Amino acid sequence: MVKSVLLLMLLLHMAGKVRSLKCAGDNPLQIPHEWYQPGEILIGEIVNLIGYMSYQVSFTSTHLRTFFTFQCKEMIFLNTKFYQHILAFVFAIEEINQNPNILPNVTLGFHIYDNYSDRRWSYQTILDLLFHYGVFFPNFNCGIQKNVVGIIGGLNSETSSYMADVLSLYRIPQISYDGSFQSTMNDSAEFPSFYRMVPNGALQYVGIVQLLVHFKWKWVGFIIHDGEAGEHFLQRLEPMVSRNGICVAFTKRAPRKIHVDTIDDMMNAESNTAAILESKATAIIVHGGTTTFMWLATNIWSPVQLISIADAEHMEKTTEGKVWVTTSQIDFAVINFQLFFDIRIFHGALSFSIHSNTIIAFQRFLQMQKPSWNNENGFVKDFWEQVFDCEVPDSMNPTNSKETCTGEEKLDSLPATIFEMSMTGHSYSIYNAVYAIAHSLHTMFLHRAKHTAVEEEDSQAFLTVKPWQLHPFLQRISFNNSAGDEIMFNDRGELVAGFDVTNLVTFPNYSYIRVKVGKLDAQTPPGKELTIHEDRIEWHRELSQPPFSLCNDKCYPGYSKEMKEGEKFCCYDCAPCPQGKMSNQEDMDYCIICQEGHYPNKVQDECIPKILSFLSFADTLSIILVFMAVFFSLTTAVVLAIFIKYKDTPIVKANNRSLTYVLLVSLFLCFLCSLLFIGQPNPVTCLLRQTIFGIVFTTAVSSVLAKTIIVVVAFMASKPGNLFRKWVGKRLAYSIVISCSSVQMVLCALWLCVSPPFPDLDMHSLNAEIIMQCNEGSVSLFYCVLGYMGFLAIVCFTVAFLARKLPDSFNEAKFITFSMLVFCSVWLSFLPTYLSTKGKDMVVVEIFSILASSAGLLGCIFWPKCYILIVRPEMNNREHLIRKQILVSNN
Q: CATH number, domain at 818?
């Protein structure tokens, strides 16, 4: 409450500085501000130099009432920067009149009015400009031709629209320098006389979006003018920013007039300040006109100056974190009660400005300005008094409240917030608009001279121009101005040009400069209209790089966005990427899977190539397995050699020498076939490894089965009259081995014909490796081969188990039972282990199973016999064998 009262007192105190202006509440302005200079042909201008600010106040508190009693409801203020618009217009007229190459025999005159940013005054001044001859008769020609061929104005869409309502009726060319986004003014059918000395405003939409995308500003605020143009801007831009992943944090509407009506308005100002400055939105888009800027400045700066020093420092620090992005109509201008406004709170602002260029002669023209209080310039007195805080001598109403204006004051001594010495974008547009009309007149006169004999025409009649006659020439106008820029209109009556992107650089003396840091060009390919030179941008003094404008912190690589329920899509949490996925950019919507042959690193922010994985001979584990395979194969060869050496001894004969040799050779090959599983897979090894292993192992198991069956048959044949006598012999053993092995051979042959194994790359089983493996082709046939071998092993184990107590030479059935128990245990544990491993580990499991099962057969069956043959040769005789069989039978 106290803060609001203090702000109101400051505004009302500063209002005293405009007491030389008339109060428009009870006694409206009777004589509008104007500047008239006669000429053979006139060009009119409607300016927006003067405006109103409402300040009706009503308090209920008795101790404050006496301080806030006013008769006026509106206060007139001068937007002093816009006085340059008038001077640019006058400068162009004088320059053309002095140029012998343009309209050499014609003197241009002008008539300038101010419309006070008011609809009624807009209509009044337009009609007055067309029909006023001392007495106002609208739409009547009283015998005196007021030869106005074109009118330039206005600054905003409302003024342009008011002017077009009247001028379109008479088809008088109107050239606006309005840079707002009023699309209805582009309707050439409804406003055929309307031209714009600015590019298509829709180009700014593209520029704003590309600027936000360029700096990755995702959470932005909007401050718009409360009117049709502002709503149109919002309706067009919001969907565009949304499609580019940008959200609007807040939207504030600046009123058409600055109100200081009640305490509620003061509280609204404070709430607006809080909403703007405390928002996480660092980038704030400001659209509208100068009134919008003044409203923003009033809401931000004034509370900062009125509250406590500590709070002021806090708020100033808060404003330093903001980046103001303004549209082409925004001008950093102040009014009377803001003369000491600290422009530095807008330091680093980025603006889309109407393209302008340096006119050196115009700067000299401004430096030479020495006002005369008695000439036709109805603006200079109020302007001079306000910007130099002096009083023009008035013999009719002398006062001594201020110093007297000498007229020797210099415009270049004023800060840029009050008046700029460099030509602004609006002034540049006005300058070009005057030249466009002049060149059109010049072209029309040349056309007339070419088709009409001048001597047959009265010179005055020759110079008579109907405004509507100018349109065909104005529509096709094309010329280069004094700065070298080409001026021409497109088919919609808009200037064919782009926009400048400027950076506001401020100074402690309340002045500033605007540095061009980029451009917006419609002639470039779509998506590349905006060019920004970041190295030229000067950000807030405490920042060395562009600030962030996000609803929350960025999601860094390795994380993805996770939407918050009930929040806008720009507000989200960050979730780590799931296993096997990664994100390599900030703020990714979802994590992605790496391309084939790559996998995420530990922090999941990049993909790295997978390494090829196979059981190489250089691996330590491979060396161990090779050593084991060679060792057991050599051991098998030694055992075979021992059995061959002692082939005629009873222990060798008693166990069927042929089957023993077949079994030992099979085991020898089993140990060696494990080497096929080591090394990089290739077509040959893939075809051979499983098939050779299956056939050789089946032969070994078949031999063991044959030995077991021979034991059973021999025992049963020992009984008199038994039918099994005829089966005893080598024929039965060979039949068993050949028949059992043949079935496995048929399965392997079918496997190779239908779907043989082949080298393959497994990209997905392991996260960091590409497994080089042998694809088994037909998995069903592969398991048929293993299943058949397991079936033989189980049959062999069952028969051996049942025959373990039968009389046998050296009790071979017991040895076979134990060996098949080891064999079956190894392969039963192999299956789940094999299926649960990947890559080279799977190969290792299979090799180990081959070696372990083969070693089990070799050790359990042949180690006891080798022990007798080598260590206990005395047991290797027929008597010992017969005695043992008798003992077994008696038991």
A: 1.20.1070.10
